[in-house]
Write a structure and sequence with these properties.
With 308 residues, this protein is α/β, with parallel strands linked by helices. It has helices at 14-26, 29-36, 40-54, 70-96, 110-115, 117-127, 140-149, 194-197, 210-221, 238-246, 256-264, 294-306; strands at residues 59-62, 65-68, 102-108, 131-137, 154-157, 166-180, 191-192, 201-205, 230-235, 252-255, 269-273, 279-287.
Length: 308
């Protein structure tokens, strides 16, 4: 059976479509309700009303799982386009009156998400108080995936893959360094050798981390495999890495931005690896071909004007 949404003559408002699209993304009434600041019965009621209005089943309830029907898939694809058009129209009309408004979903990997982007968002909000910006922090791989799926308008990552579906621009410079405790023999050194790292216990970032990917790529270019490291723990956040190094669990490699406060307070020290450049860029990524709302354009312009 083939469904065409333009053949539907019954009432169907955008609010119902927004609720349904949230259900499709989360596959959960409770999560959709939380995302939309509604009660679960309200979300369930709107879903049932939409099915009644369209005269089709949109979601099959199989145990605790929600599985879309063919009609549900059609509505989701078209509904996403309608919601994007709605938001863009609102923002363009507001921009004619000199107002930047609407919702911008931004994703960032852990370093830019914790140490870079919040300051830009704060500066932007002072200028455009009617704008609403959401910041989601995850590793580089998941941020990239969310941008490709269209769940995020903009992504900021520490490592990215050359993907023809993405528009990629270098954003800011960063450097990875070896983090050690102040009483470590290396703490007063400027450089250490790559061979010396093998003898130390090492705390590793998780797979998908931009920091880990850059480290492994640079090591490989130097003819060294990260598998030779004496890995004693894998941590999924920079805070976990920092606390592990402070506790004496081992050394690690992470962004100098994450270390700055601890270096000033003499809680940690940073050392570089001789002959191994660990500089990198942070990147701005967007889905190629996706239209940019006035809000999105204004935020990108702010980033480009203020970056240091």
């Amino acid at each position: 059976m083939h469904y065409e949404l333009n053949s539907i003559e019954r009432t169907m408002d955008l609010h119902q479509i927004e609720i349904f699209c949230s259900l499709m993304k989360s596959r959960s009434f409770s999560k959709a309700a939380e995302a939309l600041y509604l009660t679960q019965p309200t979300v369930s009621g709107h879903s049932k009303n939409l099915e009644a209005e369209l005269g089709v089943t949109l979601l099959d309830r199989i145990g605790k799982r929600l599985v879309p029907t063919e009609a549900g898939e059609v509505l989701f694809r078209s509904g996403q386009k309608l919601l994007v058009l709605r938001d863009k129209t609102r923002q363009e009309i507001a921009s004619l009156a000199g107002t930047i408004t609407g919702l911008l979903k931004i994703g960032a990997s852990t370093i830019p998400g914790a140490y870079v982007i919040p300051a830009y968002i704060g500066s932007f909000k002072k200028r455009y108080s009617s704008a609403y910006l959401q910041l989601f922090i995850d590793d580089s791989a998941r941020v990239t995936e969310s941008v490709l799926k269209g769940d995020l308008h903009i992504g900021f990552v520490g490592a990215c893959t050359a993907d023809p579906r993405l528009e990629i621009h270098a954003f800011l410079k960063d450097e990875l360094v070896v983090a050690v405790t102040p009483n470590h023999p290396w703490a007063r050194k400027k450089y250490i050798t790559l061979d010396a790292i093998v003898k130390e216990s090492f705390v590793m970032r998780e797979k998908g981390s931009g920091t880990r990917r850059i480290m492994e790529e640079r090591f490989e270019k130097a003819g060294f495999s990260s598998a030779a490291l004496h890995c004693v723990a894998i941590a999924g956040s920079n805070d976990a890495i920092l606390q592990s190094v402070k506790a004496g669990l081992g050394i690690s490699i992470l962004s100098i931005r994450a270390l700055q406060d601890d270096i000033k307070a003499n809680r940690l020290a940073a050392v570089r690896i001789k002959g191994i450049p660990l500089e990198r860029n942070f990147y701005v990524i967007q889905l190629k071909g996706r239209s940019r709302s006035p809000l999105c354009r204004a935020f990108l312009n702010t980033i480009l004007l203020e970056k240091k």
